[in-house]
Amino acid sequence: MSALETADHRRDGHRVLEHRLAVPLDHADPAGERITIFAREIVRDGGEDLPHLLYLQGGPGGRADRPAQLTGWLDRALRDYRVVLLDQRGTGLSTPADALTVTARGDARAQADYLAKFRADAIVDDAERLREALLGGTPWSLLGQSFGGFVITRYLSVAPHAVREALVTGGLPGLTAGAEDVYRRTYALTARRNRQYFARYPGDEASLRLLARHLADTVELLPTGERLTPRRVRQIGIRLGADLGFDALHYVLEDPFVTVGGTRRVSRAVLADVGALLSHATNPLYAVLHEAIYAQGRATRWAAHRLREHVDGFAEDADPADTSIPFFLTGEHVYPWQLREDPALAPLADAADLLAAKDDFPVLYDPEALAADGPPVAAAVYLDDMFVPFDLSMATAEALHDARPWVSNDYAHDGIRTDGARILDRLIALARR
């Protein structure tokens, strides 16, 4: 595939174009191996002459949205743009990077070398190839949620001329912050969210402790086949960072047990819910590359794992029966043992260890370029964001040439999911101020 290939169909008053484009696996070696990227473009009838908006989803490792309905932020965007939903390399209908395809590359070193080419810098280079194929020299607008905002910040560091305006929701990264800088902050933010959650649902703290004690003594298997351990069940706390996450967790912890023949067991329904929260079968790159998105010239060395023992409430071997110390759920933190307990990740565990030890990842952001002349950047920065620390985001906003932050405590990290039309409307107005 040497040129853009496009198929199209109709959907509810819209034209949907499905683009495939071959790009270099390593953009520093344009004549070398190639992979395919996929993007779905949606054009509302009458909007054929509108400018293009590239949407970069959160992650890493998440495919682009597959909207069942053209509602929310997408409905609002289609009033002003032709919307392009890119499956970032390794995800969705782009050439996949998962346990099946990556292990076929060879040993752990070969796998790690391959996976190292799936960070934000390569995603931006892919997007530039796609823009040139679709638009030639015309710039486009960008919308990035969470990690998508990290990709945008990289984009503005290397190709600001290609960007008409940038819209960011919960995704301004620290420009020089490493993994330790980020996780030190996010552990504190996660502890705060735990306290807020247990204040809303006081009975759930005791339920969590009881569940963890039970899992230490009783073998309970997730639907994916592996044992649910006390340290693993604490990872459901990733939901604490979502707008509706407290309620979702409460429905898991409010009554997790059934009695069978006089013996307490975890209900099959709860195991299914927990398994859905914990499995990375659909997004293995999230776990494998999560720390690597913060690696800039130095190794991460499993920063989240090293730091947790020094933060009250998160020690891995904490006794849940000891109520004199807090016993918290963890958040957006990935641990080396997790790579070996999740069947979808286990084949990649050795490669992930090598990535954690890699000390020559290139720097992603260029503060000088970002401070120079560039497009407006309208950014929703959430005070209560558990995953992207507020102080780092605001420091980046100060460093950008034309940042227009909207600071709000109305939303958690995933506000675009719950009130996307309103948030996008506000950001578009800011960008065009």
Automatic annotation (TrEMBL):
It holds the Pfam family Abhydrolase_1. Keywords: Hydrolase. GO terms for molecular function: aminopeptidase activity. One of its GO terms (biological process) is proteolysis. Residues 51-202 form the AB hydrolase-1 domain. Signal peptide: none annotated. It comes from the Bacteria. PANTHER family: 2-SUCCINYL-6-HYDROXY-2,4-CYCLOHEXADIENE-1-CARBOXYLATE SYNTHASE, PROLYL AMINOPEPTIDASE. Belongs to the peptidase S33 family. This is Alpha/beta hydrolase family protein.
